[in-house]
Amino acid sequence: MRRPIVAGNWKMHGSRAENAALVEGILASWPTHAGDCVVCPPFVYLQELARILRGSPIQLGAQDTCAEPLGAFTGEVSAAMLRDVGCEYVIVGHSERRALYAEDDALVARKFAAAQGKGLIPILCVGETLAERDAGRTHEIVGRQLDAVLDLCGAAAFASAVLAYEPVWAIGTGRVASPEQAQDVHAFVRGRIAARDATIAGSVRILYGGSVKAGNARELFAMPDVDGGLIGGASLKAEEFVAILAAATA
Ligand code: PEP
C-alpha cells in the first residue's frame, strides 16, 4: 500500500501575509486521514514557512533547484541551500521550466541527482503536450523524459523520489485528464520502472497533476496507479486544498 501524497505548487503566487493565512486555513480544517502533504512556495518564502510549519503535518518543498552545487551561477539556488532552510522535497522538470526556461531532459536529470545528493526528495514531472498526445506520442515522450533520469540515476533512485504525470494540456487550463487517461500513463510509467526494478516500481508514488480540483480529485485518486496529486491553482485556496487532501485518503 503506497501512502498518498498531495503537493501544492504555489508557482509565483503569494506574499508573507497570504502564505501565513493559507497554511493557517489548511491546518485549521486538517482532514483526519491525510497522507503526506507538501507545499512548494517561491524560494524567498521557504525559510519563513519552514518556521511556521515546524511541528505541523505539512512538509516543505521548493519549485526548482540548480543542478550545480555552488559557485558563479547568478540567480540560482542550490539543493544544499534548500536543505539548509528546511526543504524536504523539490519539484524538478515542471513543464513550465521545460517550456519557458528551455530545461531539457539531461538538465532535469542532473537536477534530480543534485537534489537527491543533498537529501531532498525530488518530485520529477513528466508529461506530453497536446500536439504530442494528438499525434499518439504520449508514451514515447513520457518514456523519454523518464529514461533520462533512470539512465543517469538508476531505478534505485526512485526509492526516495516521487513522480508526477502532468499532461501539459491540463496544467492551468481547467481541462483535466480523464481518470482512464491518467491511469493509462501512470501504469505505463510504473511499467517502465518495473522493467528495471519491479520492487521499486511497486513502491514509487506517482502523482497526477493538471487542473485537479476538489470536484474531480476523488475519481482520479481512485485509479490504482494514481497515488495523489500535484496541485497548482487549487492549492492556493485552503478549502479546495483540504478537500483534495481528504480525497487522497478517502
Ligand atoms: C501545476 O502547476 O503543476 C499544476 C498542475 O497546475 P494546475 O493544478 O493549476 O493545473
Structure keywords:
250 residues, alpha/beta, TIM Barrel, eight-stranded parallel beta barrel, 15% strand, globular, binds phosphoenolpyruvate
Describe the fold and architecture.
With 250 residues, the chain is an alpha/beta fold. It has a domain of 172 residues: Aldolase class I (TIM Barrel, Alpha-Beta Barrel), CATH 3.20.20.70. 43% of the residues lie in helices and 15% in strands. It is built from eleven helices and eight strands. It has an eight-stranded parallel β-barrel with strand order 1-2-3-4-5-6-7-8, surrounded by six helices. Helix 5 packs across helix 7. The radius of gyration is 17 Å and the shape is globular. The model has no long low-confidence stretch (mean pLDDT 97). The structure holds phosphoenolpyruvate. The site of phosphoenolpyruvate has 14 residues, from strand 8.
